[in-house]
Amino acid sequence: MRDTSRPNGLVVAMTGLAIGAAAAAPARATDTYVVTLSSSSSVNSTFDADASIFGTFIGNHDPVNNPDGTMTRTGLFGSCGGTANTAIGFTASGGAGGASTTTPAGGFRLTVNPAAGTASISELSLDLLGAAEPSFPLSAEITFGNFRTCQPTSAYIGITLPIPIGEATLMDLTAVQTAGAGAGTLLATATPNQYTFIVPVEVILTAGVAIAEAPAEPTEQTVLVPIVGTVTLNGCTATVSFSLDSNVAESSTDDIDGPQDLAFDLPTILPPGSTAHLLVDMTFDSVSVGATIDASVTGTGQIVFKPADFNRDCIVNSADITAFLQAWFSDLANGTTLSNFDSNPAVNSADITAFLQAWFAGLN
Ligand SMILES: [Ca+2]
Ligand SMILES: [Ca+2]
Question: 35: number of CA atoms within 13 Å, CB side?
Answer without folding.
Answer: 33
